[in-house]
Amino acid sequence: MTNETRSKPQPKLVWPFLAWNFGWTWGFMLLAIILKNLWPENPPVLYLALEGLLTSLSMFGPVIASLIVLKIKGFKAICSFIFSSKKGTWLYLLLFSGGLAVTFALASGGKLVDGALLSFIGSFIYLMTLAGGMEEPGWRGFLQPALEKKFSMLIASSITGLAWACWHIPLWFYDRFYDRSQDLFSVFIIFSILLSFWLAALYKKTQSAMACNIFHALSNTLIPTFVGITQANNLDFSQVNPFFYFGGVILLTLYSIYLWYRTDREEKALPSKEEI
Predict the structure, then answer these.
(1) What is the pLDDT of residue 4?
(2) Where on the phi/psi map is residue 207: left (φ > 0), alpha (ψ -120 to 50), or beta?
(3) How many Cα neighbours within 13 Å face the side chain of 230?
């Protein structure tokens, strides 16, 4: 099954997607929250492992929901949906990843958190596979293009970002592994929408959910790598240069909007299958 022949996201499937997605994720997270409160202090390793399993399973809600509503079955079809891409994918993935890394490096003055480099690879792999990265076949592989059939890129990305942020709400009630106690949810919504602009453009240009997975995981890994970036994401700029921080974020956002619309014009200029 290729990019051209697989099932296409449609607006009429958005509500079933959200129902399956939130139902799966919030259901597993509710079980994890219950377990945490049943044994809040010094639980045994096996108990923590069970909680970790539940939280990891919850993160697969978006991809599970997209496979269900698009009726994608079979190993080959699933792999095509997740791993297919267009020519030049790695170039644009490098461009976005490099832009974000340079932004954080300049904003932090190149200062790294102690021990961050030693854990970088392990954290990246974990975030890409079990703690968020595999969300992208749902958010960008399904929801974003489905909404784009009805709304502009800016509105579709904003709706996707808002839904994406709300999907994370259970993490604010569960901090055994995810410490959200210091995070401002209102700020989290803003950055979810901004990141949705970047990922929407990356997916539009590459048609690659895996490229979005990698960039999503990399962004989550880079944030705790550079000194002060975690705090800056909560509007505390005591350790970073706000000029470089906001400058990089604004440039990435403007470039994403430009790239999406340029790609859209290029796609519309191509002859249709009927014309061929």
Answers:
(1) 43
(2) left
(3) 16
